Amino acid sequence: MNEFFADGWERILAYNGLREFADFWEADFEWFEPPNYRRGGWSGASRVVLRDPDGGEQVVFLKRQENHTRKTWRNPFSGEPTFRSEARNLRYLNSRDIAAPQLVYYGERKTDRGWQVVLATRELEGYLPLDVLLEEWNRDGREAHRDMKRRLIPKVAGLMRRLHACRQAHNALHAKHIFIHPVKCRACLIDLEKMRPRLTRRQAMLRDLDSSNRHTFHLSRGDRLRFLLQYLGKERFDGEARDLWRTLADMEKRKQRKRRA
Description:
- It is built from eight helices and 13 strands.
- With 261 residues, it is an alpha+beta fold.
- Strands 1-7-8-4-3-2 form a six-stranded antiparallel β-sheet. The protein has a three-stranded antiparallel β-sheet with strand order 9-11-12. Strands 5-6 form a two-stranded antiparallel ribbon.
- The radius of gyration is 20 Å and the shape is globular.
- The termini are far apart.
């Protein structure tokens, strides 16, 4: 995938002077996040407001990176740009209507300095990271946002269930990587560069549920039980739910022992 334009976006991007890779790479956009320099490369993001030829505006997040690679089973020796795997995973989820940012554009080129890569996604307007909401809920008390939690827990559980039904594991499912629209009661996955297929749905499930369980420590036991039942599509605890609850508890204990060792 050397270059990709999402349906309907090539015209919008061209209207704003973004017709080919060089236009994206050389554009003087203000940094939304200052570039991160490491291992001889850099990566940064810009929030770009585009004019729509039909009127109005479209907002995208445009990320650029140079010489940021990681080894994969596809490229075990030379590695591949980290944005390439993120773009591949975004296309996968977008094609299956699993909530994730819409991939608008992707392009890459190899230079003497390494890989240069551009990735643009549509802005998630009105969304907040789940960890921000968890801090707010914890600060205001458990009862303050009870109704919102009861509406959002099934949305997050359903999103994760759909991902794992495809035998895909997010592999970094922290609360900050789940975005929430509090008003529209929607959930969305971000930061997908580490998403990988697993041999079985259960492997994907355990990997992500263990991670999300350890990184949502502000949730009460009742909320965690409610989430697990929603994920399993059950109204009350049964043998399957109890076994999964114990398995996740055992996984957390093992990791705690390793951290203390």
